[in-house]
Design goal:
This protein is mostly helical. Helix content is 72%, strand content 0%. Helix 15 (275-289) packs parallel to helix 17.
């Protein structure tokens, strides 16, 4: 009984999503189709891959290199946040966070007195969410909207460019609030990297990305890659955050069941009739069920595609569940600093809502 209590109280986000999923079963019929198995498969494979890379010392190597390129704590945070912003365009927000957050957390462990380490982690997540919006494949909601509304490539990139420029501007402004402390010259110890193992893991990582980008069927390539990783290092199998995977599954179930409620469907039809209402409405819905399910839920009920595009992408900011990528970043930070969970949530919420306010004021003049 004690173990069960600890299991559910140790991760409140997992427990809350579980309870919501159970409640949702009363409102709709459960269907496996509501679960995005591609997200679950890809996330599982990526977590295994990143853990293997971490064990090989590659993350430590990049952390030391990042320190060498940074003279102050502000430049250190700026460099890795901008790396997150631009890399997420190609890697997707989930992959960028899974890859760069462990590197960032490895770096800041070397500076225990660093005051803005939580702010840096939050900005890394914000940057990944915003940067991934530039390409249709950068995040799931854009891929869905690009396909659902049959958008032209030119039309998509015009909308995405506006978001890109404004995002970069707000990020650059945010760095001014990071304390500028000189990083003392340290005798960096670069771990010796096994080139053969690095090459092998790089190939496995490439196979996983081919599944993520739909170049090969994910349900074939990802299971093969994960089995290889498990046989390569069996210990990493037990290090996967299965509660995070469970949280994703429960959210998918809840959204699928609640969307079957006629009253909710009718309400959506009545609300998303204009550009402004669609923009603010999609932001609001994203705060409650995350931006990917929000896009899927709202799109069939509105023709305001531009407002919905900007709304769900900006809507990834805000609450910890506004984007599923936010959950990944939070879980990774909590793993390194379990005692700072409340502080992280507070700073995450504050910084995200400041960004959200900026974007709402900015885009209201464009709609």
């Amino acid at each position: 009984m004690k173990r069960m209590t600890t299991f559910f109280t140790d991760d409140l986000l997992f427990t809350i999503s579980f309870v919501i999923a159970i409640i949702s079963l009363y409102f709709g019929a459960f269907s496996l189709k509501t679960i995005d198995f591609k997200v679950i498969f890809c996330l599982f494979g990526l977590m295994l891959f990143v853990k293997n890379v971490e064990n090989l010392g590659i993350l430590t190597f990049f952390a030391e290199k990042m320190i060498d390129f940074s003279a102050t704590t502000r430049s250190l945070i700026r460099n890795i946040v901008l790396l997150s912003f631009f890399s997420s365009m190609l890697l997707t927000n989930d992959v960028a966070i899974l890859t760069l957050m462990p590197i960032y957390l490895t770096i800041i462990k070397k500076f225990p007195t660093m005051t803005d380490k939580i702010a840096g982690a939050v900005l890394l997540i914000v940057a990944a969410n915003l940067g991934s919006s530039f390409f249709p494949f950068g995040n799931p909601q854009n891929l869905f909207l690009f396909s659902y509304y049959s958008l032209s490539t030119a039309e998509f990139f015009v909308w995405a460019s506006v978001l890109l420029v404004s995002s970069l501007l707000f990020l650059l402004l945010s760095f001014l609030f990071i304390k500028k402390t000189t990083i003392s010259n340290q005798n960096s110890f670069l771990p010796i990297i096994n080139k053969k193992k690095t090459f092998f893991l790089s190939l496995i990582g490439l196979f996983i990305l081919l599944g993520v980008f739909n170049i090969f069927p994910y349900f074939i390539i990802i299971p093969i890659a994960t089995l290889i990783l498990i046989f390569y290092d069996k210990k990493t199998f037990s290090s996967v955050d299965y509660k995070l995977l469970g949280t994703f599954v429960f959210f998918f179930i809840a959204v699928g069941n609640f969307s079957q409620v006629e009253m909710i469907s009718t309400f959506i039809k009545e609300q998303f009739t204009t550009n402004t209402r669609t923009f603010f409405g999609s932001i609001l819905v994203s705060q409650m069920i995350s931006n990917v399910p929000a896009a899927i839920l709202i799109a069939p009920f509105t023709v305001q595609s531009q407002a919905l595009f900007w709304g769900v992408n900006v809507g990834g900011l805000g609450t910890i569940i506004a984007s599923l990528a936010n959950l990944i970043g939070f879980k990774l930070y909590k793993k390194y600093y379990p005692s700072q969970s409340k502080q992280f949530i507070l700073q995450f919420t504050l910084i995200n809502f400041v960004f959200l306010l900026f974007f709402m004021l900015f885009f209201i003049f464009l709609l």
